[in-house]
Amino acid sequence: MLTCPNCAHPNPEGATQCEACYTPLPEIVACPNCNAAVSAGAEYCGQCGYAMQSVKPVHSPVPQTIVNPPTPASNLQAEVQSSPIGPAITPPPPIAVMPDATVAPAPLPSSPTAAKTQLQQFTARLLHVQSNTVLELPPHLDVIHIGKPNDRVPPDLDVSGFADSDIVSRIHADIRAEAGAYYIEDVGSSNGTYVNNLPLRPGDRHRLRPGDRISLGKGDKVTFHFQA
Fold first, then answer.
1. Which of 97, 133, 179, 211 could be a cystine partner for 128, CB 3.0 to 4.6 Å?
2. What is the rounded distance in angstroms from the CA atom of residue 159 to the CA atom of residue 169?
């Protein structure tokens, strides 16, 4: 069964969108190294740290549409003049431009990078419940790794300094920023990730909303509140 990351509705295997809320469901692939279930968008396997770039689905290229080239203006004018029906069409005279006229330059289009930066300007953070410590989410990262120091996927949010952090895996969960929203997914942790006391299966994503309670591992020992 595939659990909807938006409404937690169980869907049958192979479904592409939620039957209840029509949210697109994430694609699940198997890690070639340890056979763990991993989201198709994950960069690394959360169980063994294997780079998942090589198992991403390959999409066939979109066929190009061949457009006939336009008829040159000279040929079009010759066809009109040689047509026996109707009078010949005289092209309009060129528009004269005054020498003292000033033409304002067109505004430059905004770059995708600037637009992306504007979408991520709002503040998002995690409040550690047990110590009342605030962890700011880096606004310049699209994927934020949560875990403990390791030599494969260094964490962007290091929770090794909190009490009971031994239940947190070195590569535990990811928070993704997409179009002004944040999503959390478990990347194969040993003790699991829980959102509002519900387990988050590896590969499933949950859209975070202000007030959501995130627990890393069982027992609600390393807990955060999402704030935005």
1. 133
2. 10
